[in-house]
Amino acid sequence: MTVPGRVEAAEHLLALAPPAWFLRHSRAVAEVAAWLGSRAAARARSVDRQLIEAAGLLHDVDKLLPEDDPARHYRHGDGSAAWLTRRGHPELAAAVAGHPVTRLASEAADAWLETASIEERIVAYADKRAGQRLESMADRFESWQRRYPDGWPERERREVLDRARRLEVDVCRTAGIRPNEVGRLAWTGAALGRAASLVRS
Asked: In this predicted structure, what is the pLDDT of residue 1?
């Protein structure tokens, strides 16, 4: 049971044949998460950067699973956690399970914000800042609203946004930055290229 390195995480993702749009999102989340992890580590925070990078890249794998895979039928995030656990990476389970924005609507959301590890919070926040590219959290929420107009009732939507803002304040404070300073640490291109060459050889 180990946390996969960059190339191994990329191999897991490529094995599921992700479409281009999915790959762009996974790369964006992984690179934002890596950047936040590097900033937190630079401030002498104890943070598992390898876990953050792998969980960021693999957080949505349950969306790629075939219908006959049991993990496909779990709640989003939990399916990714189950699939990765089956592949010998249970260390990634909490970080991928906690990322969906819908988790911020649950009764356990406030407790999660208080008790989740820094790795879990960084991956969840990176997903709130990366669609196909790095964007503001407000733009990301607008995109969700356009795609799912019949989503949450107004009161619940406000609660989710409030929790997301609390998450943003917490993660940015840990990284020692303001939200408008969030960046990307470019690593996924090289890892995916190496993984693809290993598959071909």
From this structure: 59
Question: Tokens 């969980």 — which residue?
Answer: 55
Dist. CA 44–CA 88, nearest whole Å:
29
Domain ranges of the chain: 6-200
- For residues 193 and 197, give the distance between their C-alpha atoms in angstroms, rounded to a whole number: 6
* Rounded Cα gap, residues 33 and 127, in angstroms: 8
Looking at the predicted structure, is the pLDDT value of residue 21 above 70?
A: yes
Encode pLDDT of 138-184 as tens digits: 999 888 778 777 777 788 888 999 999 999 999 999 999 999 999 99
> How many alpha carbons fall within 13 Å on the CB side of residue 92?
33
Cβ proximity of 51 and 3 under 8 Å: yes
Residue 14 neighbours by CB under 8 Å, 6+ apart: 192, 195, 196, 199
42 by Cβ neighbours in 10 Å (0-12 / 13-18 / 19+) ranks as exposed
State which fold the 6-200 domain adopts: Hypothetical protein af1432 (1.10.3210)
In 151-165, which positions are buried (b, 16+ CB within 10 angstroms) versus exposed (e)? ebeeeeeebbbebbe
Structural contact between residues 127 and 25, judged by C-beta atoms closer than 8 angstroms: no
pLDDT more than 70, % of the chain: 99
Cα–Cα–Cα angle for 172, 27, 87, rounded to 5 degrees: 100
Q: Which sign does the torsion angle of CA 59, 64, 69, 73 carry? A: positive
